[in-house]
Amino acid sequence: MNISKVVTESATKWRRLLKDTNVRWLFAGQLISQIGEGLSKVALLWFVYNTTESALKMTLVGVLQTVPPLVFGPFAGVLLDRVSKRMAMIVIDVARTGLLILIPALYALGHLSLPWLYTLIFVIAMFSMAFGPALNASLPRLVKKEQLVGVNALMQSALTVGQLMGPAVSGILIAAIGAQNVLYVNAGAFLVSAVMKIPVRIPHIERAGRRQGAWVQAVKDFRDGLRFMFVKQRLLLLLMVMASIFSFGSQGFVYLLPMIGDQILHVGSVGLGWLWSSLSIGILLATVLLVVIKGHEICRRMLLLAGASAVGGGAALVLLLPWPLFVAALLIAVIGISSGLITPLVSASLQERTPKELLARVFGVFNTGTMAFAMLGMTVLGWASDTFGASVSLITIGSAQLGAAAFTAMLLPLCYRLAKESGSRLTTQRSAKSA
């Protein structure tokens, strides 16, 4: 592969995407928002630990941030499919701005008790969990079908830049102004993100024929979303299962990287920083590769996903050997590339095969499935690390990734059969309409 040609082609396609004013404003808002998220991720954990001096109370922050998307994600999709996606994202950003400001403000006034802090964190997470489905439901309304992989990769690059810059800047700001005051900066980033969405124009599809009561209709909408994914489009169910198995290992690797660096690679804090950067750089490289990938049909994408998962799993197992820091960083970059390929390809496939009026519900259900496996992975792998050591966890992570690859490869014949059936139904429907 000619690397310079890939980079040039990627830059050309990204410029073409960013010529669209709506995409440009949305990407800029995401970039600032994700940097703010990176700031608060470190600052909030440090603030809670510094205030309570309890590791357990600090870890509850992660639990409170994970529960809303796991429990309420599909129900949020029902609401989001009824409203303007642009307005929903603006409201979410403004709400997060106000709620984040409350934490340092109440602390300064001496009124911030631990229950109130946990309550605010939970409510912020409730708003945040609706943002992803709203964004994913917006993208197919802004770009052509063949541009979906590229635009998803573009939005993922904003997330990766936030992961790279946010924690580093947060550490400097914590030392300069205090952890609680860094939350003001994060709140400001959300506010700027909301303002940047004002010029965005996302077509809104008004739904006709809703004559039932609000609750009856909401239950029907919820059932329609589940029926579409689990009955009408079983190809999407295959994608969810594959992505869920992959997230079991990938999320565990991210949260266990400090322990892996300490117990297996024997690096200090500086070396760990290089490893974190390598993971993020790998994800960024994946976004470059995704822009030049042609618009393959869903089963060929599943084959690509299986390959990415196998490569990532193999790199995790090879990481067990006593490598110098440079080689370990390269292996972790490979794991980052593997992880970075999964989400945009899966998201684009969901967006292509889902009616626009169902997108938020489908992504809500999808996110719930992957989040459940991610939580299971973090719990099981954390327990395994404490009980048996980091090596056992790393073997489990690599095995889970290889298992996801094997499972996906086994499902390919079923994928081709379902794709053929889906194509036949579509042809019949078109013939009936033309008749």
Task: Kindly summarize this structure in a few lines.
The protein has about 425 residues and is mainly alpha-helical. It is about 85% helix and about 0% strand. The chain has two domains: about 200 residues, MFS general substrate transporter like domains (Growth Hormone, Chain: A, Up-down Bundle), CATH 1.20.1250; about 200 residues, MFS general substrate transporter like domains (Growth Hormone, Chain: A).
Walk me through this protein's architecture.
Helix 6 packs across helix 12. The chain folds into two domains: 199 residues, Growth Hormone, Chain: A, CATH 1.20.1250.20; 200 residues, Growth Hormone, Chain: A (Up-down Bundle), CATH 1.20.1250.20. Helices cover 85% and strands 0% of the residues. The chain is mostly helical and 435 residues long.
SSE topology sketch:
Blueprint: H1 3-18, H2 21-52, H3 55-80, H4 85-109, H5 114-138, H6 148-177, H7 179-196, H8 214-232, H9 234-263, H10 269-292, H11 298-318, H12 325-353, H13 359-388, H14 390-434
Helix pairs in contact: 1-10, 2-3, 2-6, 2-7, 3-5, 3-8, 3-13, 4-5, 4-7, 5-13, 6-7, 6-10, 6-12, 8-9, 9-10, 9-12, 9-13, 9-14, 10-12, 11-12, 11-14, 13-14
